[in-house]
Amino acid sequence: MKRVNSIPSVTDTQAYDSWKKQWSSQEGLDVYSYIFDQCQPEHILLFSKMFFPDFVVNEGGVFLARNFSAEVFDSCLGLASGDLSKTEKLLNVVRVYDVFGQVVDNVPDDVFVQLCNVIGFAWHMVLKEKFSERVFCVEVSNSEQNYGPDVTFYQVGLNKFVPFKGR
pTM to 2 decimals? Predict the structure, then answer.
């Protein structure tokens, strides 16, 4: 028998660890026990949109629907000097501190890094499923200059964007 983990073991989970310590017998308690006891199905269903987001395809680029608007696209395209891959990278970034603004100070940074890695893994899978003819790079980073952990994606091998001028 061989066990294959989809993602690394989750660590530094204060809420889960605290919950688990309240039980005199912890044998058999696992993450599924915590979900059974503490989590609302709606929360998990709503958060699944972070793992499996909606997309907008525009001018050959693929963008997170939650981040996309024509104005933001034009702005990012300008910042990227017309490079569509760089535009995707700019427009598709999600900073997890911004997603969980109300609890950032109460959660270890490592939890946010782990979460970014899981989101990145999920995005890699869904992009491959929804856009099998395209090649994407999913990047997870954690730096002070980017305001903590973030995740983004962009297409590899795209040509420079040239707007249609009409004839």
Answer: 0.85
